[in-house]
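Design a sequence for this backbone.
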């Protein structure tokens, strides 16, 4: 998970809302600021961005602001980002309601952006680690173990291993050249990867094989 400090650098408001999510209880403004500082963010930076953060806290449908405190609540499940955008474009709404719906749309866009940032950061860290290991002339087997261990943290599991023999399964294998019958003995040229998220599996890439 992205640290609060990294999240704050990319979107200060999302970091403040994450504080509320993690707290699980109402927090006053001072307590939110203190927890951001405890996460390694300079207090002067928190103070500089607080006015904007506070405005968004008061209009975000996932935040309840009352009696000088703020608490997190899940977004209304019946309002998806697509539904929120449709209501904004097609309905005459009070400014307060429009602002709440707009926040749902903007939150979805920020989440998509954060997902992209997290993916690029993970890729950069992997590339840096591989280069470091190669510079230190680490054995190929050790390099492979380190790479697979790192991608496993992102929910990726390798399908097969290059150089090994297996039996062809078109669900997880892709052949080089002509077609291969199911169950035929094949050699793995390049492994594939499966991504598991919330119990659901998605094949990112099939293992490449040849007879």
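Sequence:
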């Amino acid at each position: 998970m992205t640290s609060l400090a990294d999240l704050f650098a990319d979107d200060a408001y999302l970091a403040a809302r994450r504080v509320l999510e993690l707290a699980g209880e109402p927090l006053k403004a001072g307590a939110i600021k203190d927890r951001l500082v405890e996460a390694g963010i300079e207090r002067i930076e928190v103070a500089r961005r607080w006015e904007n953060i506070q405005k968004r806290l008061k209009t975000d449908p996932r935040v309840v602001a009352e009696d000088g405190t703020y608490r997190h609540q899940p977004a209304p499940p019946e309002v998806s980002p697509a539904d929120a955008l449709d209501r904004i474009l097609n309905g005459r709404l009070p400014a307060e309601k429009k602002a709440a719906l707009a926040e749902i749309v903007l939150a979805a866009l920020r989440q998509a952006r954060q997902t992209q940032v997290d993916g690029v950061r993970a890729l950069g860290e992997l590339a840096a680690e591989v280069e470091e290991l190669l510079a230190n002339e680490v054995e190929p087997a050790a390099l492979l173990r380190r790479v697979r261990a790192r991608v496993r943290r992102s929910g990726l599991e390798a399908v097969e291993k290059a150089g090994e023999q297996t039996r062809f399964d078109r669900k997880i294998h892709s052949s080089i050249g002509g077609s291969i019958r199911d169950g035929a003995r094949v050699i793995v040229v390049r492994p594939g990867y499966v991504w598991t998220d919330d119990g659901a599996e998605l094949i990112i890439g099939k293992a490449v094989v040849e007879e």
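The chain has two domains: 4-112, 155-211.
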